[in-house]
Amino acid sequence: MKAYWVCIYEKIINPEKLKEYAIKAKPAVEKFSGKFLVRGGKNRTNEGIISPRIIVAEFPDYNTALECYDSAEYQEAHNILEGHVIRHHQIVEGN
Predict the structure, then answer these.
(1) What is the pTM of this model?
(2) Which fold has domain 3-93?
């Protein structure tokens, strides 16, 4: 069963750091056969927090999604975000 990263940004404090993160995160995700289904774009908040950015990445399965998040390559990218964004990141299994 496929798995997804769902990331909802609550606040982007430094857009330049977010761009730097995105450049490093993409090859890490692709290394684990992940692909971005949603990466920014128009969105409308119907309930909950208003989000300036939403990401959805698809992986072949749940364990691969976990391995990617925990990998040295992704964590190197993730560390760029520290203090520059507030976001909610979840890994969920789905169809």
Answers:
(1) 0.92
(2) Alpha-Beta Plaits (3.30.70)
